[in-house]
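CO-FOLDING WORKSHEET

Operator: S.A.
Ligand of interest: flavin-adenine dinucleotide
Run index: 377
Mode: holo prediction, single chain
Checklist:
[x] sequence pasted
[x] SMILES validated
[ ] output reviewed
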Amino acid sequence: MMDIAIIGGGITGLTTALALAKQGIASTVYERAPKLNEVGAGIWLQPNALKVLNYLGLKETILKNSIELDRVDITDSQLHSFKIGENTVQDHEGNKIVSIHRAKLQQILYEALPPNSVKLDYDFQLLNQLSNKVEINFDAGKVEADYVFGTDGINSKIRKQLFPQSSLRHSGQTCWRGISDIQLPAELKNLGREAWGNRVRFGFSQISDDAVYWFAVAKAKPFEKDDVSKLKNDLNEKFKDFHQVVNQIINHTAVEKIIRGDILDLRRLGKWHHQNVCLLGDAAHATTPNMGQGAGQGIEDAYVLAKLFASDQFIGDTFSKFEDLRRTKVDYVVNNSWRFGKIAHSSFGTFLMKSIMKLTPESVINRQLEKLYSLPI
Ligand SMILES: Cc1cc2nc3c(=O)[nH]c(=O)nc-3n(C[C@H](O)[C@H](O)[C@H](O)COP(=O)(O)OP(=O)(O)OC[C@H]3O[C@@H](n4cnc5c(N)ncnc54)[C@H](O)[C@@H]3O)c2cc1C
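OUTPUT RECEIVED:
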């Protein structure tokens, strides 16, 4: 039997294990955290991610634990959409965008896996590629595997070992995320909003009947820190000209649970694999979050790689095929997401985005979405 080690138990790692299991291939996920407890707020999963989760038999459970959104609109600070039109965004199978708590998503993925397939407290240190096998060194000891999938996120140690020249790009923006214990007015319940003001953005949506996920983005130098005692005031000040619901959302959030992180992505890697080791998800192609597609791309990686692995029966150039199938979309997401963030925080951003939205025909937008939401195999 083939030994497959997946290093990193985030959304990509767990989905990879599930997609392999669906093909009848066993694997073990090694996660450094002592328990699976995704810190973070909410996440938007778009139809391409939902397609894969449906294929894995999880769509119903996801829908029971999330809020389906008719669409996510870019708006002005008073929540008026830049786009005229109220179409529901969905793919041909009726998959919409869902808004879910990250911890809930991770729990659903974890509980769907065969028992004992996730090993916690395994902090990856170093790997040695032997002729046919890979020796993996964790804090907890050594393990050998035939194939290793590196799903250890944007700061991947596996990537640093395989491709030491890889580097991250700082966007010049920082992001606060939180969960607020309020209910949005009924007309907003099934809508995601991303409101643009003067070089600041505030996005939000309901993730359950009694909780709202939100994020706030502003320009900042790398590694700035907050004074937590002033954070709510600072955020309210930044968004004081916004619709009052924005300040209500901020005020109904436990300040100690607000997470701050600078917005980064990974400079394009020439390759995602070396011999029997392949990177997936953020470890391979971390994107800025502006298109809400980072996890979606990790989920697609899992689906495509598991299908190729099963059909190639572990021989040949499976990892090269994987890269060929995934590159175009991943590049599209990373590049457009980066550009989108730059526009949002430029002095002419609102004007430019409004013009783009008004001038772009619905048919063009639909074609782009169709490409984004379709799977390559
Ligand atoms: C502000 C923000 C908002 C976002 N919003 C969205 C959104 O709405 N929709 C969307 O699709 N995407 C979104 N994303 C992107 C999404 O969060 C990421 O793309 C996704 O979490 C990547 O999953 P991953 O499993 O590849 O990596 P991670 O989530 O980083 O998981 C990596 C896992 O590996 C483990 N690990 C790390 N190092 C080691 C080690 N040495 N040994 C063992 N284990 C290790 C970690 O503990 C972690 O569990 C957003 C990102 C940000 C920053």
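REVIEW:
The chain has two domains: 4-168+265-373, 169-264.
Residues 7-13, 30-33, 43-44, 122-124, 151-154, 157, 175, 177, 215, 261, 281-282, 289, 292-296, 298 surround flavin-adenine dinucleotide (CB under 6 Å).
[x] output reviewed
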